[in-house]
C-alpha cells in the first residue's frame, strides 16, 4: 500500500466511534480485514487502501448517527455503493469508517403520472430498471458499470444516452443527504423546477461524498419509446465519424445514442463479446420515437453518414439484437482490459466542445502511438466526451510514467480547448492536480464551501480538493 | 417607503466607495435621485427602495472593482439588468450601490458547430435572438418579460418552452462571476458536461446575486426546427385541459410549448392584444420537428385533446399567426393588469408534481372566488407551474391581507404536495418566509454557504435568506 500512515485516523478516535455506533449496528458493523480490504478499492488502477471499519446501513437515520459520531471523533467517513468508481473515490487513504449503502436499495415509490421514482441510494440502475419493466418507464442514465444511483449522483455520472436524456444531473429531482454534522437535508421538492433558494441538489451532485452522503434520491423516469431502432456504421477514419455526428446534431436528429468505437475497441469487443464488426472506426446509433419518426431519423442519419464516408450499415431492430449490441458496448472497458490479461486499466475522460473533438481524438491517438501504450478508444461523441482505456501494469514505473504523460497532454489540450479534465468519471484521487488549471479562483470558492460545511474535514477527506 | 432606515449603509462608508470607484467610472457613476429611484423597483407589487448610487458598467473588471470596494467598506451591492424581476430582487432596501449591467450586452461569440454563444450578462433574450436570426439557431428560455440573461440566471428563470428545452439552469454551460471579495471566477468549461469539482454554476444560478454577480454567460443554443405548428384548443374545464397535458406527456409527444390560460386570462388577453379566443380554459400548444413529425404530433395531440373534451381547435401555421399568438401569451401578465388600470400585480408561482396540478388549480380558483380577488390564471402546465396574476391596490390593507391569505394557502398546499413556493420567479423579498417550511435543515446549509462566501453580507443583503 502506498498510503501515508501518518494521515490515518488515530486508533482511540476510531475506538470511540465504534463504541458509539456498535450497539446500533450489531453485526452490520465489521472490522474484519477481508471485508475492509474489499471496500478499499474501486475499478481503477489506483492503489487500494482499506477503511478501518465497514457499516452495512439500513436507513438514513443510521447514516446520520454514524456520520455524527465520525464528526465528533474526527474520524474520516466514506460512502460506498458497489465500488465501480474509477478515480479512487472510495479508496480510504486515511482509513476511517466506510458506509456501505448497498443494502439500502428499496424503491419507495414509482409515480407513473409524474414520471418519477423515489429510491434508496444503494439501488443499482439495472435493479431499478428491472423493477420498472412493466410500467412503460425507464431510468436513463447508464454508465458502463452497474453503479448505484447514489454513486452515480456523487460522481456526476452519465452514459450512452446523455445526448438525448441528460446526465444524472438532469435526472435528479431531489435527494436526501446526511450532512457532515449529521443533519438530514432534503434538497428540494418533487416539482420539475424550482427557484426557491440555493440549488443544494446540484452542489451535492458530483461532490463525491466530500460534503455529505446521499441516502435517497427522487429521479426522473422517461417513457419507453413506441419504437426503437439501432444500427452500427463504419467509417474509414475517426474524423468522418465525428463529422457525421456533428451534422446529425446540427440537423436536430433527436438520437438517443451516438457512440464511437475505434478499430482497436472493435477488435477488443469482438473478442470479448463474440461480435463480428468490421475492425474500423464505428458509430453505434440508437433512435427512439414513433415508428414513423424512427424510420425518418434513420433515413436521414443514413444519408448523413454516407456523405461522410460511412458504410457497412448493420441494423438491429429486434430487441435481442439491440440488447446484445449495447451489452457489447457497455462492456468495452472490460473488453479492453482483456487485451492484456491480469493488468489494470485507466480510462481517460476528457470532454471538449464538439468542434474540437476530432482534433482531440487525432492528437490523443498520436500520443498513444508515440508512447507505446495499449489504449482502445471509445466515447460519447454526441457530448464531446471520449475515453482511452489504457491497459497497464500499474507496478511498472515506465508504464505509469507513459500514462501520466498521456493524461497530462490530453488534459492540457482539453483545457486549452475550453474542455474539462473529466466528463463523467469525477476527480477522486486521479484528477485533483488538474483542478487548479481548470478552475483557477473557483477552486478557492470550492475550498471555502468545503471548509464551511465540513470544518473537521471528515467527509471523504483528501478527495477532489 | 417602507424601508427601515436603520438598515441602510452609513453615509461615510458609501462616500469611501464612491471616492474609490469614481475615477474609474466617471459619469457612469450616478447618485442622481431620479436614476437611483428608477433602479429601486422591479415589476412587482413590492414597495420600492432606491440604491444610493448606480454604476453603469462596461466590463467584468469594473464590476470586480466595485464589488471589492463595497466589500471593503461593508456597503451593500446589487446587480440590475432591466428591472423585470417580480419578487423585489432588485429593491435596495438597505441602500448601497446598484450595478446596472444593461450596457454590458455584447455578444462575444456564436459558435454554430458547438451550438453555443458567449454573451455579456446585460443582453436581453430578444437582443440575442435578433442577432441569431440568420444562424438557424435560437436561445430558448423565454420568461414573459424581455429580461437580461444575467437576470434570468440569477433568478433561475424559465418560460413557455421549458417542457421541451429546459429552464435557464439546463441552458447555461458556464458563467463568469464576480465573487464578494472581488475575485473573478469562471464556473466551468464550455464542454457539454463535466464532473470536475463542485458545480459552482448551478450554485450561483438562482442565488439572486447574494453570492456573486454574473457578468458573462456561455449558453446553449438550439437549432430552429424544420417545421413549427401552433394551435389553441378550448376545454369545458381546467381539469380536462390538465388531463390532456398529462396524457400528452405520457405519450411522449415532444411538444415545445403547452400553456394553459383560464377563461379570465383569455378575456384579458382578448382585450389587451385584440384576440378573439372563446372565453374558456384554453391550451396554447406548439410543435417542433420535421414536417412529418410535426404533423404526426399534431394529429396525436388533437386526438388526445378531443378525448378529454377539447374543442374549437385553431391552427396557426404561418409564422405571423404564431408570433401574434405567442406575443399575446407573453403579454398575459400585462393584459391582466389592465383588468384594473392603475393597480399593481402580484403573480403567484407555485409548481407541483403534475399529478397534483388539477387539484391545485381547482383549490386556487376556489380561494380566489372566496377572497374576492381579481386573478386570472395561466401557466406552464407541462412543468406543473402556474401563476395567478392578482391585480391589487397595494396600499389597500384589505386587498394585501387577501393576497397574503391566498399566497399562504397556495404555498402551504403546494409544499404539502411536494411542490415549491416558486417555480421560476425566485425568492427575493416575497418568498423568504416560506423557505423554512420548504427546506428545513437545508436552509442552515444555505446560510452557512452564504456566510462562508460573503462574510460581510454585502451581496444583495436581505434577499432570499
From TrEMBL, chains A, B:
Enzyme class of the recorded protein, top EC level: oxidoreductase
Enzyme Commission number(s) of this protein: 1.1.2.4
Organism from which the protein derives: Salinisphaera shabanensis E1L3A
Pfam families on file: FAD-oxidase_C (PF02913), FAD_binding_4 (PF01565)
Any GO BP: lactate catabolic process
Domain FAD-binding PCMH-type: 47-224
Top-rank taxon, per record: Bacteria
Cofactor(s) listed: FAD
GO molecular function term, any single one: D-lactate dehydrogenase (cytochrome) activity
Protein name (database record): D-lactate dehydrogenase (cytochrome)
Alphabetically ordered keywords of this record: FAD, Flavoprotein, Oxidoreductase, Transit peptide
Gene3D superfamilies in the cross-refs: 3.30.465.10, 3.30.70.2740, Vanillyl-alcohol Oxidase, Chain A, domain 4
SUPFAM superfamilies assigned: FAD-binding/transporter-associated domain-like, FAD-linked oxidases, C-terminal domain
Family: Belongs to the FAD-binding oxidoreductase/transferase type 4 family.
